[in-house]
Amino acid sequence: MKTPALTGGLGDSVRPGVEPLDDGLRFGVVSRHAERIELCLFDAQSGRETARLPMPEREGDLWYGYLADAGPGLLYGYRAYGPYQPGRGHRFNPHKLLIDPHATALEGRFVWNPAVFGYQDRHCNDADAIDSRDSAPFVPRCRVSPFSAEPSRTPRPGVPWADTVIYELHARGYTMRHPQVPTPLRGKLEALALPVVTDYLRGLGITTLELLPLAAFIDEQRLVSQGLRNYWGYNPLAPLALHAPYLAGTGPASFAAVLDRLHEAGLELIVDVVFNHTAESDAYGPTLTLRGLDNALYYRLDPDHPESYVNYSGCGNTLDLSQPAVLEWVLAALRYWARLGVDGFRLDLASALMRDRSGRFQTHAPLFDAIGKDELLRPLKWIAEPWDLGPGGQALGRFPAPVAQWNDRFRDSARRFWRGDPHTTGEWATRLSGSADLFAMARTPLAGINLITSHDGFTLADLTAYQHKHNWANGEQNRDGHEPNWSSHGGVEGDTADPGIGILRRRRRRALLGSVLLARGVPMLLAGDELSHTQDGNNNAYCQDNRLTWIDWSARGDTRRDLRGFVTRALSLRRRFAALHGSGFFTGQIDDSGARDILWLRTDGRPFSRQDWDRHADMALMALICDKQASDAAESWIWLIMQPGTDTRAVQVPPSPGGGAWVCVLDSTRETVADEFPVYVTGQSMVLPGIALRVLVSPACRL
Questions:
Q1: Is the fold of 6-143 the same as that of 578-701?
Q2: What CATH code would you report for 578-701?
Q3: How many CB atoms lie within 10 A of CB 345?
Q4: Phi, psi (deg, nearest 5) at residue 410
Q5: Is 647 a catalytic site residue?
Q6: DSSP E strand boundaries for 74-187
């Protein structure tokens, strides 16, 4: 049998990764400080390593070679030779099989074994402590997997930001308990494209799915030792490879088909991507990919102590996007997912991606400069989680266009207002109006992603049922999880049979939902909140791949849990009135036509004074909103009432357009969405129950 060999030449337009070329494959991998790199080949049947082929060519930091008579299905990995000198930032160890950073598919399971570590006996920073055990039996192989984007594929829906309603979900947990999804497809990406799921989402009013990470990841060693799993997926191993357990089919073509079906249903899909850190963790972590290829190139190291990692991510290491080679790798990954058909990206801990060589946050970072010049990436939706754990890491409002940002100020303000915290009325009015203090300098309200809940934290049901986090199942003695939560249980911690508390909790849930769906900005819902999904008070369920996190579909039709009618009505109002999804900020100023875009009122009907904004938050807040794009003046006003207190109070009904009546079209105090709409006449006094959000319009605006 002829021994395979890599050949040189064929160097035109060579790129990292694997490319089909003539009758073979060209391999490229980036390392600046390696002295030698080998391509390792494996038998597809036995998994046995069959060859180690030195890379014959090098141009700058790119090593490459051509393998004749090779194609899709080939299993491979790398080994890199160089110094093991942690004090200089180098951790080369050729005994460790390395995953190609550009691999688009993995085969085999990762196993925590002492051989996956590059050092011996916890002496990770000793230059003479290099470990000589072969890690190949315990590390997945890279698989050459073909994908060809056909020009006839379903076009992207291209939903404008002003019409976008985001729904954050977990690819596995969303359908694991869905009774109408066939058992083989439960927990798989293919299930999301079934009509029973897409019809549900479209009926709810969703336009855009935002999925937690889909790229290949591993379970942390601590979790495995405790019988737990990494559920969320924020422990990346190969950012271009789909996490194989999420697919019923095989390879990227299966995922592309899912995207086509979603696009046919008019739904967009945004993928959460993690480029701030990798699963190799800190100096005590395993050697799996970048650490072994070139630790000093790919990671941010402490300049005074290069054996230590800068940890802006909180996960042990931080990737260094100030290095052009690392930036190009990230861009290549984004382009790959874009070619599969995704509609955008949510960038985890995005502040870490914006730092220069010294670690300072820079608004115009090379990443977004490059995205703005890329014809494939520029038109997509971009969302930043605008913080990390580094200095100045909270960067909300500082990201450049076209990047939208998770608005945690909206989240916390809404939670505090609706639980009745003192002195929150003015802050909440600012958030409801589009957060001009954050975005008005060079952006619009559409730069803010408004949310009440997300995967990280309490669900909506738990936000209204628990005062404290209950994370004991995570194995960290309840020390993990976000604080503070700004939650309110209504008098009893957890589940209760008290009907009065139950009523107030449901009112608060609906009020919070209405707030995020009717505010200026882009609304985002957490999947399952419309069904009052609970995690039993766990606000950090990252390692709970079980019924705690899997959506419970039995809530449909249960009036105590099913909030879909309220969500659907609120979103129909958002679509109906341009004033609720406009791209400008409310100012409260009188324009040339003599009208204000918004007028804030007290419960006695008088306009808010400066002193009123600092009063206790249980004072109801009312707003008259002018929909200036309405064709008829009689249809141009919306009356929004927000009463966070638990006591009943009287509200003065303000004048309505043309002297007519006000019609209530949304009411958080009703257990179901009514087909009959109560009418209120100017000058009357409206009785307002506790924890109430109401939307009233003129009769011509009745839905």
A1: yes
A2: 2.60.40.1180
A3: 25
A4: -65, -45
A5: no
A6: 75-81, 84-85, 90-91, 106-107, 141-143, 166-169
Q: What is the CATH number of domain 6-143?
A: 2.60.40.10
**Sequence-ordered list of residues with C-beta below 8 angstroms from that of 263, at least 6 positions apart, any chain:** 154, 155, 156, 157, 341
* Residue 502: exposure state from Cβ atoms within 10 A (0-12, 13-18, ≥19): middle
Give the start-end residues of each E strand in 415-555: 448-451, 522-526
Catalytic residue among 131, 210, 385, 529: 385
CA distance 90 to 124: 12
**DSSP secondary-structure letter at 130?**
B
- Helix (H), strand (E) at residue 411: helix 408-418
Q: Which of 348, 412, 618, 667 is catalytic?
A: 348
Which string of b and e fits 83-111 if b means at least 16 CB within 10 Å?
A: ebbbeebbbbbbbbbbbbbbbbbbbbebe
Q: What is the band of 698 on the pLDDT scale with cuts at 50, 70, 90? A: confident
> In this predicted structure, what is the pLDDT of residue 703?
47
Hey, is 29 helix, strand or coil?
strand
CA dist 577 and 144 (Å) reads 50
DSSP per residue, 444-483: -GGGEEEES--SSS--HHHHTT-SS---GGGTSTT--S-S
Q: Which of 621, 640, 637 is nearest to 629 (CA)?
A: 637
For residue range 89-138, list pLDDT tens digits in order.
999 999 999 999 999 999 999 999 999 999 998 899 999 999 999 999 99
Is-catalytic flag, 385? Answer: yes
Sign of CA dihedral 297, 301, 303, 306: negative
| Pairing verdict, β 598-601 and 621-626 | antiparallel
Of the chain, the end-to-end C-alpha distance in Å amounts to 76
Q: What is the pTM of this model?
A: 0.96
Task: Enumerate the domain spans of the chain.
Answer: 6-143, 578-701
Q: If we measure between CA atoms, which residue out of 412, 413, 444 comes closest to residue 428?
A: 413
User: Token pair of 504, please?
Assistant: 């107030």
